[in-house]
Amino acid sequence: MFKLNEIKELIKLVDETSIHELELENEGSRLTIRKPGKTEFVQVQPAMVNGGQPVSVPAVHPAVNTPAPAQTNAAAAPAEADANLHKIVSPMVGTFYRSSSPEAAPFVSVGDRVGEKTTVCIIEAMKLMNELEAEVKGEIVDILVENGQLVEFGQPLFLVKPE
Question: Do 27 and 85 reside in the same domain of the chain?
Fold first, then answer.
């Protein structure tokens, strides 16, 4: 059974990414959020939200208040320049954080040496903090996203020169 505030949070998350469809199943309820074009709706099947009342909520149009994905072109240029660099990519959709708290120093900076188990960032997804490890031994060459930025599944976050 999905709560209305969870659905609203998922709509916002889908709206802020290039994901076009999200499908979840929980306790026999199925939630599908799609962005096929100009008309976008959230559908819950079977209708078990708010005491069994059907829910169809229009999603926010993706062209409104969505930041331009300028980082994708910037990320592609360094990757093409040196094919020997290892990309650390996001394993999920969420918010990228360089440190464990606003007051803490970043986990890594450009020029830092990392090992396979070195924590490089945190990805927050659905209020869960997920630490991401480097998975390769080497030197951080570039950080491709900004602190607090929403990231997508498979999006490159760091470039590492392997040892």
Answer: no
